[in-house]
Design goal:
The chain is about 60% helix and about 15% strand. With about 300 residues, it is an alpha+beta fold. Helix 5 packs antiparallel against helix 7. The strands form two sheets. The chain has a five-stranded mixed β-sheet. Strands 1-3 form a two-stranded antiparallel sheet.
């Protein structure tokens, strides 16, 4: 009987311990879940901007609230400073653009007037060189203004679904004369181009395409430039291929750098900003650009625009 009583006591004790353990686990789970919900509510309040410290004691939860409040405060200050800096840059860019536009326009106007009035060929040649430098300066300032607007987010591209053909048609009209002057052909292969649509910002994609065509004509001495459209499932490719001297494999990794100028291009006008600007434009449209080339084999630049 004594053994039976002892066994019963052990069994009861075991059951009590098991029940107590289960209760303890349940309580811990409840506390953990409650803490997780409180943290979840804190994060939700932080995301919608309504977070406020509500507990002021020595608990871990209160410390967490205080740290989150400090983090959000620092983030808000940082965002405010970034917005102020962006606004200052925007104002500076606008001032530079405004302050330089009129003087440069006047310089070009007066040089043209003087060229018409002067009889000496030597003086007219000097004025022609002065006008060329003024045009280069104007181009550089305009390019820097565009770049700064893109890089600082002052200018936001607005891609929309549109037909690709008008983009090519306008580019052909703009550069046909320049190609003829060098004795080159400029071909736009129709193919599927008239039926293709893509998502792009018309004005800025035109800027990127014109930079590629201008480079192609500039660095081609014989043959010409061909523009074609290649539709793919996710992207629409606009390829600008020339029959120029090509780009070495070593240089291909450098040509999209800002202000990069190939030693072989020293005799050509330019500031080394066109390809960089084209890449930045396509990047903001969720597209990209790539190059295929080889020395003496010509170059093909491909702009990839999102199909959707």
């Amino acid at each position: 009987m004594a053994d039976d009583g002892r066994a019963t006591i052990i069994l009861i004790t075991g059951l009590v311990c098991l029940f107590g353990g289960a209760v303890l686990v349940a309580v811990n789970q409840y506390r953990t879940r409650r803490s997780m919900y409180r943290v979840k509510r804190m994060l939700e309040a932080a995301m919608d901007g309504t977070f406020q410290e509500s507990v002021f004691d020595e608990s871990l939860y209160s410390a967490l609230e205080s740290q989150l409040a400090a983090y959000l405060s620092a983030s808000e200050i940082s965002a405010r400073r970034t917005a102020q800096e962006k606004e200052q840059i925007k104002t500076l860019v606008a001032d530079i653009s405004h302050q330089t536009k009129t003087p440069l326009a006047n310089i070009l106007l007066y040089t043209e007037l003087l060229q018409e009035q002067l009889q000496s060929d030597e003086n007219r040649e000097s004025l022609g060189l002065l006008a060329d430098q003024a045009r280069k300066l104007k181009f550089l300032i305009d390019s820097l203004v565009k770049l700064s607007r893109l890089e600082t987010g002052v200018l936001v591209l607005q891609p929309k679904r549109a037909a690709v053909w008008p983009l090519l048609e306008e580019a052909e009209k703009q550069f046909a004369g320049q190609a003829r002057e060098k004795g080159l052909y400029l071909k736009v292969l129709t193919g599927e181009a008239r039926e293709v649509t893509a998502c792009f910002d018309l004005k800025w994609t035109q800027e990127a395409l014109c930079n590629l065509i201008d480079n192609a004509i500039k660095y081609t001495e014989q043959g010409g430039v061909t523009i074609r459209v290649k539709p793919y499932k996710l992207f629409i490719c606009i390829e600008v291929a020339d029959t120029g001297k090509g780009i070495s494999e070593e240089e291909q990794a450098k040509i999209f750098g800002r202000f990069y100028r190939s030693p072989q291009a020293a005799d050509q006008a330019g500031v080394g900003i066109g390809l960089y600007l084209a890449r930045e434009i396509l990047k903001q449209e969720s597209g990209y650009i790539k190059v295929v080339s080889g020395e003496g084999k010509g170059t093909a630049f491909s702009m990839y625009l999102p199909a959707d």
